[in-house]
Amino acid sequence: MGRQAWTEPTFGAPYLRCAYFSPSVPHELVAAFAASLASPAPVARRRLPRNAEKRLTIVHRG
Questions:
Q1: Which of 4, 16, 18, 54 is 20 to 30 A from 33, alpha carbon to alpha carbon?
Q2: CA distances (Å), 25 to each of 4, 19, 35, 46, 54, in order?
Q3: Partners of 5 in beta bridges
Q4: What letter does residue 5 receive in the DSSP assignment?
Q5: How many CA atoms lie within 13 A of 17 on its CB side?
Q6: Are 5 and 25 in contact (CB under 8 A)?
Q7: pTM for this structure?
Q8: Could you tell me which residues come within 8 angstroms of residue 17 by beta carbon, excluding any fewer than 6 positions away?
Q9: SS3 20
Q10: How far is Cα 18 from Cα 35, in angstroms, rounded to an integer?
């Protein structure tokens, strides 16, 4: 049996992203992926998605 992870902009909304891991993917890789999703650390981005403007709070640190 494989594993699947997805993100929704709001509960019950269509998937924003979806990832599937086949049974042959090492458990350590799936665990690292899950840990990165659960991390509260900010993600550095060079360009924001077009539909993200009203959904994100942008903080500039100098």
A1: 54
A2: 12, 12, 16, 30, 36
A3: 19
A4: E
A5: 5
A6: no
A7: 0.52
A8: 6, 7
A9: strand
A10: 16
| Token pair listed for 24 | 């042959």
Strand segments (E) across the chain = 3-7, 17-21
Cα–Cα–Cα angle for 17, 21, 27, rounded to 5 degrees: 125
- Which residue(s) pair with 4 in the sheet? 20
As given in the structure block, the two tokens for residue 14 are: 């269509």
Polymer length of the chain: 62
What averages of pLDDT result for each successive group of 10 residues across the chain (62 residues)? 81 81 90 85 74 72 66
> Residue 14 gets which letter from DSSP?
P
